[in-house]
Design brief:
This protein is an alpha/beta fold. The chain is built from 13 helices and 15 strands. Strand 14 and strand 15 form a beta hairpin. The relative contact order is 0.16. Bound molecules: 6-O-phosphono-beta-D-fructofuranose (F6P).
Length: 383
């Protein structure tokens, strides 16, 4: 029992709380890439667990490292989460090289060798008498969570990704902030594109889904948007840029999602490694710019927005969604609804099995209303 959390409660309410909500000890874990709004989830989970349920809360630093390395499991109090709501990133730190089932360690020869440290997670949960885990992550982290659930751990999930690519939830926190950042960048790129009469190719994140490119492209007034769900033909893009030039607009802004492919072509990766066999997409913006520069007279330049899209203070929407998710996750623990992930459905918080959440990606439907609206205002998708 954590005396710090109990000390300022009147005795009668303490007894009431003990009767209604048996004392629990939970751990908050976040994994994978960081995402604006993560701190809102952490804060809400900690506050709800302490204020509503009088539980004790721990936090695992750098994804699952709290279970694997010494000194990385930290007590979470109201003080720990004070003032973090407007902060980007995560106060727990994170890594996407922290899968306990395939944990990369450098050996004496400097080679990376994968270890299965999943047993350490199981042991530490028992050793610390942790009743449940609130696991915040994208599909990679939630898949790891699912493996631990199958081994008997009590886990509830919170979806996290700027990509908005989890089918089981209408949206994820972090997306709105990324959208704001990219839209502002497109506003800025427009003025220099116009001054220099250039084609500016802006590469954005999103993995296999085109949501960031699509929504920022519309909001930022892009002329061309290329998304993974619609393979492009470079000649169509050239046609659009040329039509603009002939109409007295000798500049264009082309938004390229990192996962795009030309018709019949393949995706471009910047990195593939032993700890991440799926690799990291990146670099297609330069490829598109190169394809264009050999076909048009206007100069082209490439900008990769990269991790800028994951930074910054979360928008009000992401703080709000993160807070609602954090509260709901702890409520799921209280209700014993393990193996489930909080989700947004028609603006209401609900929950779905974690296994279902990781099974399918939310991709842009090429006949989506948003695509139709974009086409109506003259945006070219390269098809
Ligand atoms: O999933 C979030 C995301 O930002 C993707 O959009 C991007 O492809 C990837 O993570 C980048 O990962 P990393 O931070 O490992 O480079």
């Amino acid at each position: 029992m954590n005396l710090v959390h109990w000390s300022n409660q009147p005795i009668h309410s303490t007894i009431l709380c003990m009767q209604v909500h048996p004392q629990k000890r939970i751990v908050v874990v976040n994994g994978g890439g960081d995402c604006p709004g993560l701190n809102a989830v952490i804060r809400a989970s900690v506050k709800t667990a302490i204020l509503r349920y009088r539980w004790e809360v721990w936090g695992s630093e750098d994804s699952f490292d709290g279970f694997i390395k010494p000194g990385k499991m930290i007590p979470m109090t109201l003080d720990t989460v004070r003032g973090i709501l407007p902060k980007g990133g995560t106060i727990l730190g994170t890594t996407n090289r922290g899968n306990p089932f395939r944990y990369p360690v450098k050996n004496e020869q400097g080679e990376v060798v994968l270890h299965d440290f999943s047993g350490r997670v199981m042991d530490k949960m028992k050793e610390m008498n942790l009743d449940a885990m609130v696991l915040i992550g994208g599909d990679g982290t939630l898949t790891i969570g699912q493996r631990f659930i199958e081994r008997g751990l009590s886990i509830v999930g919170v979806p996290k990704t700027i990509d908005k690519d989890l089918l089981a939830t209408e949206t994820t926190f972090g997306f709105d902030t990324a959208l704001r950042t990219v839209t502002e960048a497109l506003d800025m790129i427009h003025t220099t594109a116009e001054s220099h009469e250039r084609v500016m190719v802006v590469e954005v994140m999103g993995r296999n889904s085109g949501w960031i490119a699509l929504e920022s492209g519309i909001a930022g007034g892009a002329d061309v948007i290329l998304i993974p769900e619609i393979p492009f033909q470079i000649e169509k893009v050239v046609e659009k840029i040329e039509a603009r030039r002939l109409a007295g607009r000798p500049f264009s802004v082309v938004v390229v999602s990192e996962g795009v492919t030309p018709e019949g072509g393949s995706q471009v990766y910047r990195e593939k490694g032993i700890a991440d066999p799926f690799g990291k997409l990146g670099g297609v913006g330069a490829v598109v710019a190169e394809m264009l520069s050999s076909r048009i007279e206007l100069e082209t330049r490439t900008l990769v927005l990269g991790h800028l899209q994951r930074g910054g203070s979360p928008t009000a929407f992401d703080r709000l969604l993160g807070t609602r998710f954090g509260v709901a996750a702890v409520d799921l623990v209280a209700a014993g609804q393990f193996g489930r992930m909080v989700a947004l459905d028609d603006q209401r918080i609900t929950s779905v099995p974690i296994s279902a959440a990781t099974a399918r990606q939310r991709l842009v439907d090429p006949s989506d209303q948003m695509i139709q609206a974009a086409r109506a205002v003259g945006i070219c998708f390269g098809d």
